[in-house]
Design brief:
Length: 330
């Protein structure tokens, strides 16, 4: 495959803790038939995966490459959070031959995808009469980890600043919240981890299991094995799982309300990730909108900020393609 100018072929990679997805784009549009998934286990780094993919696809000329990595990014270097890899832009350039290489945080890539996702892949959670086309947006990742980042502008002018706000403090507004915070701190300390109850410790995949452990302890029951067991219990009507969903909903709504007032995303809030999709069907039953729109001194939360769930598994790849297209000449 080759491409020039507006039809340039670019290579995209979305690296998670377990798998890496690689694909091609032409003219800034993701080519779905080229998406391949590679297991990270047994691989020493990203570069062998990219080399195998390029050889299998028979790609002859790559104008640009963009990698979305689940971890902090500084310059063209990413350190993976849940994988012992370091992604270097120079190494990606060497294996792909691309003249232009970008390394993005995975949440930044999701932010660049907004506006390029099919409407049917957006599931509304809360409508807002005050939503504005072209306004700032907020992308919130709920999966293996938790993060959120504002999205400003479009095309080459789009800015999605990096963030690590999944580690901000748990909102504590009640005795139950205080008891939960102390429980999570003790739980983390018992595992030899930093005893800090950030929102990631209750809203991520492992966070759901942490919440369920708290609810099970309160009920005098043994904890669930993991988040998958909690979700299965929720589907089966288990009361401890239902209590876990109630807590998850309240904490998520309060976290999003705080983030909405910080960033004023009048163009909408977009939830991405496996936990967002898994928990979305349970939010309404636990008064998600009422908690999110609880009155404060300003009335913005009462009328503004639509919330949707992104149901496109390949949104990060789409965002990488859009970002590269905005940076390539012509």
């Amino acid at each position: 495959m080759t491409g020039t100018d507006g039809n340039a072929i670019t290579l995209l990679a979305d690296i998670g803790g377990t798998n890496t997805r690689v694909a091609l784009a032409r003219g800034g549009r993701l080519l779905p038939d080229t998406i391949r998934r590679f297991a990270n286990a047994g691989r020493p780094a990203l570069e062998p995966i990219l080399a195998d993919y390029i050889a299998a696809e028979g790609v002859q000329e790559i104008a640009g490459a963009c990698v979305a990595a689940a971890g902090p990014v500084a310059g063209a270097r990413a350190v993976m959070t849940n994988l012992d890899w370091v992604i270097e832009g120079a190494a990606v350039a060497a294996v792909t031959g691309a003249a232009r290489v970008a390394v993005l945080n995975d949440l930044q890539a999701q932010g660049h995808a907004l506006g390029h996702i099919a409407p049917e892949a957006l599931a509304p959670v809360i409508a807002a009469p005050g939503a504005r086309t072209g306004g700032a947006m907020l992308v919130v990742g709920l999966g293996t980890g938790v993060n959120a980042a504002p999205v400003h502008g479009s095309g080459a002018a789009r800015i999605v600043p990096p963030s690590e706000c999944g580690h901000v403090n748990l909102p504590v507004r009640s005795e139950e919240d205080f008891a939960l915070m102390r429980f999570i701190e003790r739980l983390l300390q018992s595992r030899g981890e930093a005893a800090h109850c950030g929102v990631e410790e209750v809203l991520s995949g492992r966070g759901l299991a942490n919440l369920a452990a708290f609810c099970a302890a309160e009920a005098g029951r043994a904890p669930f094995a993991d988040s998958a067991a909690v979700l299965a219990g929720l589907a089966a009507g288990d009361p401890v799982a239902a209590q876990t969903a109630r807590l998850y909903t309240r904490i998520l709504a309060q976290f999003l309300a705080d983030q909405a007032l910080v960033h004023l995303p009048l163009g909408g809030i977009f939830l991405i990730g496996g936990m967002a999709r898994a928990m979305a069907p349970h939010l309404a039953a636990h008064d998600f909108e009422a908690i999110f729109r609880a009155p404060r001194r300003v009335d913005l939360l009462i009328r503004d900020f639509a919330i949707s769930v992104v149901e496109d598994d390949y949104a990060a790849l789409t965002g990488c393609a859009a970002f590269l297209q905005s940076q390539l000449p012509g």
